[in-house]
Design a protein that fits this description.
Blueprint lengths: L1 E2 L3 H11 L12 E2 L2 H35 L23 E5 L3 H4 L3 E3 L5 E3 L5 E4 L13 E3 L5 H13 L7 E3 L2 H9 L5 E4 L3 H4 L6 E5 H9 L3 E9 L4 H20 L1 H10 L6 H11 L2 H4 L2 H17 L18
Parallel strand pairs: 1-2, 7-8, 7-9
Antiparallel strand pairs: 3-11, 4-11, 5-11, 6-9, 6-10
Helix pairs in contact: 1-8, 1-9, 4-7, 8-9
Protein name: 1,4-dihydroxy-6-naphthoate synthase
């Protein structure tokens, strides 16, 4: 399993990762930023598609050989691409909702464990106060072009920045606010605890992407999702979802139990900021997406597809195998 060292993830998965959830399968945890886990999921899904295409081709050749009596060709086709190596070892990943259209053939969206909410969207920061129109043609730093934050930003910019922004610069999350402060970029798109710390850099909030999303849709803001390999099978997927829900409830029942684990991985974050982070991103949607959560995810990806930002989803792509 791979998830981020952010307080919401370590809080949610503390009980499960420490073997405290009764009957849950043991997990080996890797910590990785969401841009890394997005890449892992995309590579795994691409490898699965390539393997499937090779298998289809082999079956077609085998069928032709049976008809003609010819000798079958080369040896067996491997079910995984050896170039992907250990990247294929992660059964469960925390990813951006934005990456789902590229991976849902290989991964199922779990109906729990992720990050949705209200009042918790990404922010566009600038070194001086300004207006959205002032970003026309400007350089903007973003943490990833496969992130939900980026989709929300692009949907906002399409509505609020006539002529569009200029160059998009992908930077590690922790480098964005210093880059804006130092003038290396004109604006930066930030997430998570930056909502509470950007003033420490002398920066100004130009726009709140979550506020724009909520005002235009009335839906919660979909940010991070938990996905698991479909190849695990329906029974195992249901077991994993149950483990996630139990881990969330155990964290709520005894918040202090997870505190050392949260702070150990919070990258020297102030404990008060870590508490704010958890309070903002761990909520009823973490325990269960529910009707509003699924509507938010479908709404984001449908709008993004209409703008040509992601491939369109199939009608049942988000459905959880075997039900919730």
């Amino acid at each position: 399993m791979a998830y981020s060292p952010c307080p919401n993830d370590t809080f949610v998965f503390h009980a499960w990762s420490h073997g405290l959830v009764p009957g849950a399968p043991a997990v080996d945890v890797t910590f990785a930023d969401i841009d890394i886990t997005n890449g892992l999921a995309e590579r795994t899904a691409a490898g699965s598609r390539e393997a499937g295409e090779r298998d289809d081709a082999k079956r077609q050749v085998a069928g032709m050989d049976a008809d003609t009596g010819a000798v079958s060709g080369s040896g067996a086709v491997s079910g995984s691409d050896p170039r992907l190596g250990p990247l294929l070892d992660h059964d469960i990943l925390k990813v951006s909702y934005a990456v789902l259209p590229w991976i849902l053939d290989a991964y199922a969206l779990l109906p729990c464990g992720g990050a949705l909410g209200r009042g918790c969207g990404p922010l566009v920061l600038t070194a001086a106060p300004g207006r959205a129109a002032g970003l026309r043609g400007k350089r903007v730093a973003v943490p990833s072009e496969r992130s939900t934050a980026y989709l929300l930003f692009r949907l906002w910019a399409a509505a609020e920045v006539p002529g569009g922004v200029g160059e998009i610069v992908v930077l590690p999350f922790h480098e964005i606010m210093p880059a804006v402060r130092d003038g290396a970029v004109d604006a930066g798109l930030v997430i998570h605890e930056a909502r509470f710390t950007y003033r420490d850099y002398g920066l100004h909030c130009l726009a709140d992407m979550g506020e724009h999303w909520e005002n235009t849709t009335g839906l919660p803001i979909p940010l991070g999702a938990i996905v698991a390999k479909r190849s695990l099978g329906e029974r195992r997927l249901r077991e994993l979802a149950d483990a996630v829900r139990t881990s969330v409830r155990m964290a709520w029942d005894d918040p202090e139990a997870s505190r050392p684990y949260v702070l150990e991985h919070a990258q020297e974050m102030d404990p008060a900021v870590a508490d704010q982070h958890i309070g903002l991103y761990v909520n009823e949607f973490t325990a269960d997406l529910g009707e509003a959560g699924y509507a938010a995810v479908r709404g984001l990806l449908t709008r993004a597809a209409a703008e040509g930002l992601v491939p369109p989803l199939g009608p049942h792509a988000l459905a959880f195998p075997g039900g919730a």
